């Protein structure tokens, strides 16, 4: 498809989901080529990718570096970044692609469906802030390739929040990030189970960026921000939940663990 876009998928031990992810991309996107950037899988992920005939690049560095390598190995002006556990719905392309014609827009993504969580109030919390503030996530994103390449220096020291790094850069350039408030894909991951490790990676990223001043950025300030967010959510939705508050503080604890023990829970 010479008039299509390049698609890149970041993987690491994604054998349970990468097959479905690739099937959805092939079926629902006008791709020119598919590039998989793998961060060191040892579970058969690469065998599945190669059996589908997609290009595979190895990059064992931090997630920010992986994102840069994804863009570096693509060639089209706009590229699609799809997480290895995301399945694009058929209507995704028709909803996001019109924004490619707007020169002021640098990034487009959408909200997604998730498996039912064990803590449904946390799902409500996430959707509340997504709807209120919008969201930047590379799980299902159409983005101008050059905007990632221009963030090389910052990305190479970022292990979590790399999407926010690029999103902030886009805003500084006077461009816009667009979040479509429609569920146009399925993210095969329960945030309740996934986010502790995401916060752990965020703590590791803070250490890479700020050194030993990091506990303030990721620990104390993070705790304060989560309490404030809980208060806003509780006040505006009238949904009071101590379980939610305890879980948010639990996430802050994982950020601190990631800072002090950056290699302990990596696999």
First and last CA, distance = 37 Å
Q: How big a fraction of the residues is strand?
A: 15-25%
Outline: globular
Q: What is the string of SSEs from the N terminus onward?
A: EHEHEHEEHEHEHHHEHHH
By DSSP, the count of extended strands is 8
- Main sheet strand line-up: 3-2-1-4-7-6-8-5
Characterise this structure.
It contains eleven helices and eight strands. It has 267 residues and is an alpha/beta fold. An eight-stranded mixed sheet has the order 3-2-1-4-7-6-8-5, with helices on both faces. Helix 9 (191-210) runs antiparallel to helix 10 (214-237) and helix 9 packs parallel to helix 11. The longest helix is centred in the C-terminal third of the chain and has 24 residues, at 214-237.
In short:
Helix content is 49%, strand content 20%. The protein has 267 residues and is an alpha/beta fold.
Key features of this structure:
267 residues; alpha/beta; Spore Coat Polysaccharide Biosynthesis Protein SpsA, Chain A; 8-stranded mixed beta sheet; 49% helix
Secondary structure: elements and pairs:
Layout: E1 5-11, H1 18-28, E2 31-38, H2 45-51, E3 55-58, H3 63-72, E4 78-83, E5 86-88, H4 92-96, E6 105-113, H5 120-133, E7 140-144, H6 145-149, H7 152-155, H8 162-172, E8 176-187, H9 191-210, H10 214-237, H11 242-260
Parallel strand pairs: 1-2, 1-4, 2-3, 6-8
Antiparallel strand pairs: 4-7, 5-8, 6-7
Helix pairs in contact: 9-10, 9-11, 10-11
């Amino acid at each position: 498809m010479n008039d299509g876009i390049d698609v890149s998928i970041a993987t690491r031990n994604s054998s349970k989901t990468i097959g479905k992810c690739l099937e959805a991309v092939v079926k629902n996107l006008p791709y020119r080529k598919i590039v998989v950037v793998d961060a060191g899988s040892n579970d058969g992920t690469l065998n599945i990718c190669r059996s589908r005939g997609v290009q595979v690049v190895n990059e064992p560095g931090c997630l920010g570096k992986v994102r840069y390598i994804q863009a570096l190995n693509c060639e089209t002006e706009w590229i699609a970044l799809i997480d290895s556990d995301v399945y694009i719905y058929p209507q995704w392309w028709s909803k996001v692609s019109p924004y490619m014609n707007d020169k002021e827009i640098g990034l487009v993504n959408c909200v997604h469906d998730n498996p039912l969580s064990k803590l449904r109030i946390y799902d409500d919390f996430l959707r509340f802030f997504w709807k209120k503030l919008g969201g930047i996530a590379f799980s299902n994103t159409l983005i101008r390739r050059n905007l990632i390449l221009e963030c090389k220096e910052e990305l190479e020291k970022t292990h979590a929040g790399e999407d926010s790094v690029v999103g902030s850069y886009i805003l500084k350039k006077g461009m816009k990030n667009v979040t479509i408030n429609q569920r146009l894909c399925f993210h095969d991951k329960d945030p309740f189970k996934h986010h502790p490790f995401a916060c752990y990676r965020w703590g590791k990223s803070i250490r890479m960026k700020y050194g030993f001043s990091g506990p303030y950025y990721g620990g104390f300030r993070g705790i304060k921000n989560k309490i404030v967010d809980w208060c806003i959510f509780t006040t505006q939705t009238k949904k009071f939940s101590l379980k939610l508050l305890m879980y948010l503080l639990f996430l802050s604890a994982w950020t601190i663990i990631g800072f002090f023990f950056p290699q302990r829970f990596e696999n």
